[in-house]
């Protein structure tokens, strides 16, 4: 095993480094007798280990900062009064201080170092080195990132380094211009990330996604917050955009298709490729029968987070006393039907926008025109579901540009441009699928949504009779095999269709108001006609 010297990262006095541990070693480390608190892993009845991630059980977007320097100043899409987002600027002085806090925290102790790739394509992937002091965090990144081969490991030169100092705090955060004792800070020039005072694994995973979202579009590659799969011949790719909890992982894991990836992808001249080596599924109320493949992926080497487990290792997936954002990470090969050995498929032919509409207005499926595609992609209307972000405790309607605003480092129009360019070339069709609520007050069933996805992917939706939905001018099918026809027009799910009408007008108004931020230029103004009208 290659030796590693951490003094070049300003980390000194390290008595022991567990470098690129095997799954066996990770298991030993995270369940070692004597571990206490949030470091302690518990073996469950399914063989997977469960850990508690502490106070932070979801991302903390208010604590996300990017160093503003000569490279980032004119490229990063900074938060502003006109368009608030999660790209808060940090000064170079602040960077110096937070990096020192991390170096100090990580010095003089036993550490875990894991190397992995972000991006399945050799030409454009990022080699990432994670340095941390908690064993299960090493397990998490081993699951989520692409594992180098023995030869790649020998010659591993990191392009990017992540310092995870989850046990440290930024005490003088006010004078540093930070938001709290917790900080997640990126430096796109030195290519480093520092994490302080949060243990949530998602900060490492979505952190590197944010960095891919910075570097990939600058190379002309579409960078997408989506899952992806392809047919059993590996020829007919579909991508599923959606904010957290809208169904990317659930719906892309489909025994009739080969999974490419469940969350982060690029689309270049050769097609759609995964950034990751694993999946990160929500497990709240996980049901063996409606999500059998995810359920079966929960075994030895998978890592559960914040799930309620009794002293005998029995799991209660229904319990949300810690958080609704209970999770499992597993290497992608825990799913049987996957593209191997490289998570890659040809250019997408179907592009699906998943929106979990908490208002119950959007039809379960709408066929979008090319202009509507651009409008609804930039709008990114959906609900933030409970738990994934700090402070969100119930489904909260939001406009999250490109269905992943929290991870966009460039202006949303850049992602739209790259996506549309790729879609035009492949002739991809686009659909808006509501995986959220309707007039029944309940969430649309996974069974109905799966039926809708099947109909999109096998072409039935193109043959179905359709009608137009007022205000939005959505074209919706009125009958689809395997789907309850009573839900396809959302008005039919209300006791009184005028209730839908009221809500629809309100939602249309919200779209119009939100889109104003794109109307500053001709291209944005031209799209208004594709949006809702009152
Ligand atoms: N109609 C539906 N379609 C997809 N998921 C649904 C639906 N109804 C309920 N769910 C639940 O919503 C959650 C979707 O989570 P997940 O697929 O992990 O989202 P993402 O990968 O987009 O973050 C799962 O817990 C799933 O069981
Ligand atoms: C892990 C996250 O989301 P997703 O469910 O999209 O993977 C996240 O937003 O922190
Ligand atoms: Mn997911």
UniProtKB/TrEMBL annotation:
Any single GO CC term annotated in Swiss-Prot or TrEMBL for this entry: cytosol
Enzyme class: lyase
Pfam families xref list: PEPCK_ATP (PF01293)
Binding site for substrate: 59, 200, 206, 327
Cofactor annotation remark: Binds 1 Mn(2+) ion per subunit.
Binding residues for ATP: 206, 225, 242-250, 291, 327, 443-444, 449
SUPFAM superfamilies given in the database record: PEP carboxykinase N-terminal domain (SSF68923), PEP carboxykinase-like (SSF53795)
Principal location listed in the UniProt entry: cytoplasm
Catalytic reactions of this protein: oxaloacetate + ATP = phosphoenolpyruvate + ADP + CO2
Keyword rRNA processing included in the entry's annotation: no
GO terms for MF: ATP binding; kinase activity; metal ion binding; phosphoenolpyruvate carboxykinase (ATP) activity
Subcellular location: Cytoplasm
E.C. numbers: 4.1.1.49
Keywords (A to Z) from UniProt: ATP-binding, Cytoplasm, Decarboxylase, Gluconeogenesis, Kinase, Lyase, Manganese, Metal-binding, Nucleotide-binding, Pyruvate, Transferase
Family according to the record: Belongs to the phosphoenolpyruvate carboxykinase (ATP) family.
Name of this chain's protein: Phosphoenolpyruvate carboxykinase (ATP)
The organism of origin for this protein: Bilifractor porci
């Amino acid at each position: 095993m290659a030796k590693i010297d951490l003094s070049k990262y300003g980390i000194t006095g390290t008595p022991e480094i567990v470098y690129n541990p095997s799954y066996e070693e990770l298991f030993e480390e995270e369940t070692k007798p004597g571990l206490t608190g949030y470091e302690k892993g518990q073996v469950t009845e399914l063989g997977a280990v469960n850990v508690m991630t502490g106070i932070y059980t979801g991302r903390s977007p208010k604590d996300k900062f990017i160093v503003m320097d000569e490279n980032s100043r004119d490229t990063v899409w900074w938060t502003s009064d006109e368009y608030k987002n999660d790209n808060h600027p940090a000064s170079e002085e602040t960077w110096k201080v937070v990096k020192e806090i991390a170096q100090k925290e990580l010095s003089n102790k036993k550490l875990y170092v894991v190397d992995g790739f972000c991006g399945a394509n050799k030409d454009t992937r990022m080699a990432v080195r994670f340095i941390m002091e908690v064993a299960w965090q090493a397990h998490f990144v081993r699951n989520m990132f692409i594992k180098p081969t023995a030869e790649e490991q020998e010659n591993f030169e990191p392009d990017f380094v992540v310092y995870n100092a989850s046990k440290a705090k930024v005490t003088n955060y006010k004078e540093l211009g930070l938001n709290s004792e917790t900080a997640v800070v990126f430096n796109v020039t030195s290519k480093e990330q520092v994490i302080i005072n949060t243990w949530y694994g998602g900060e490492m995973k979505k952190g590197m996604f944010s960095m891919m979202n910075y570097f990939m579009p600058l190379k002309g590659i579409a960078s997408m917050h989506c899952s992806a799969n392809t047919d059993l011949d590996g020829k007919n790719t579909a991508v599923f955009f959606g904010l957290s909890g809208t169904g990317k992982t659930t719906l892309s894991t489909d025994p009739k298709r080969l999974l490419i990836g469940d969350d982060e992808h690029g689309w270049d001249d050769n097609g759609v490729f995964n950034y990751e080596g694993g999946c990160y599924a929500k497990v709240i109320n996980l049901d063996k029968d409606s999500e059998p493949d995810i359920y079966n992926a929960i075994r030895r080497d998978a890592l559960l987070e914040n799930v309620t487990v009794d002293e005998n290792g029995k799991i209660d997936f229904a319990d949300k006393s810690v958080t609704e954002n209970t999770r499992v990470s597993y290497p992608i090969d825990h799913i049987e039907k996957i593209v191997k050995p490289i998570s890659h498929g040809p250019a997408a032919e179907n592009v699906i926008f998943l929106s979990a509409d908490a208002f119950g207005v959007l039809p379960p499926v709408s066929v979008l025109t090319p202009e509507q595609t651009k409008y609804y992609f930039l709008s990114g209307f959906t609900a933030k579901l409970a738990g994934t972000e700090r402070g969100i405790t119930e489904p909260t309607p939001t406009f999250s540009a490109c269905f992943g605003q929290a991870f966009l480092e460039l202006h949303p129009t850049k992602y739209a441009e790259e996506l549309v360019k790729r879609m035009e070339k492949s002739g991809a069709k686009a659909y808006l699928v509501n995986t959220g609520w309707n007039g029944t007050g309940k969430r649309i069933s996974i069974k109905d949504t799966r039926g809708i996805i099947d109909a999109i992917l096998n072409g039935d939706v193109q043959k179905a009779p359709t009608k137009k939905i007022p205000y939005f001018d959505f074209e919706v099918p009125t009958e689809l095999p395997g789907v309850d026809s009573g839900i396809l027009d959302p008005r039919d799910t209300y006791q009184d269709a005028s209730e839908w009408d009221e809500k629809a007008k309100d939602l249309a108004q919200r779209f119009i108001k939100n889109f104003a931020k794109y109307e500053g230029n001709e291209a944005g103004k031209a799209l208004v006609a594709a949006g809702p009208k009152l």
